[in-house]
Amino acid sequence: MSNREDRELNEVELQAFAAELDALRQRTLASLGSEDARYIRRVRAAVRACCWSGRLLLMLGWFPPTWLLGSLLLALGKILENMELGHNVMHGQYDWMNDPELSGRDYEWDIVGPSDFWRHTHNHVHHTWTNVVGMDDDVGYGVVRLFPEQRWKPFYRWQPLWVTLQALLFQYAVAIQHLRLDQYFKGRLSAAELRPLLRQFNAKLLRQWGKDYLLFPVLALLLGANALAVLVGNLLANLLRNLWTFAVIFCGHFTEKAAVFSKESVLGESRGHWYLRQLRGSSNLEGGRLLHILTGNLSHQIEHHLFPDLPARRYAEMAVDVRAIAQRYGQLYNSGSFAGQLATVLRRIWRYRLPPQAALQP
Questions:
Q1: Is Protein biosynthesis there in the keyword field (predicted)?
Q2: Domain locations in the chain as residue ranges
Q3: Each residue of 222-265: pLDDT tens digit?
Q4: Which of 14, 149, 181, 325 is the 20 to 30 A CA-CA neighbour of 212?
């Protein structure tokens, strides 16, 4: 069970709480401008520079340290594209710029999952029903039990193994989530409904595999470079991006003090209740500017859940006000170091693999 100390708010307090957060949102919206546009364009340029310099270094083969540096630069470019560029752009954070390359409705990111899948499962479902058991599929992603409120199933005994596989293959886990294969096998989704989703998934999968594991290795062959070095470098870059993304997302949602909610608790939910749920169901990571950039500012997961369509680079300054508002209303502001928050996630994974009575034992 989550270890939180929150004061319950009455309706008047909830309205005031929502009004303060709405006012913060409006102040930030009114101040968006050239600095925000310049920032995201610099991020886009950094992604391109990292990816292309990494790929060029990989063309030099296994010669140290160029192969390792090339792999790390390519991984850095993929992490930046995934976290600070793609994720935030697809939330519509920069739609006000009217830049076709930064359109939230049209952006296609560099992972095997189609962006349309993510815009539905993440932007719509997850952000609407954050941490509501039975409505938010991100609670355990269907294979992990992280809260006692989740019904235990025998295969959870092996969830440390499932989580390890999920972390290594995280981009595939994110993509497959939208296919709702569990609903198909239960007979709630027909083959006719699943087929177009599979076609879309397969097309994006082949595109990504073709780029990373065919195009650039073949190009290396044509240039007389080591194709195997390029292939393995791409594999390593994707692996590092998967592990990093997994760790950031799990630390933002499933720490010791993150709360989950029942379906009944969100019936007739007011804006104040919705804000309160975002605050209680989220976890922040403390660190320097580099950490915030590499996490796509999801190190400020509380602020992201409260204001998903505001540019993420603003979350650090907004966090000062959000923390103060939370304290005024007697709410825990869940924030800690990356290592500390990750440790509590790993403890949850280990503890809740067991049946309820066993998991309650110290």
A1: no
A2: 11-33+111-359
A3: 999 999 999 999 999 999 999 999 999 999 999 999 999 999 99
A4: 181
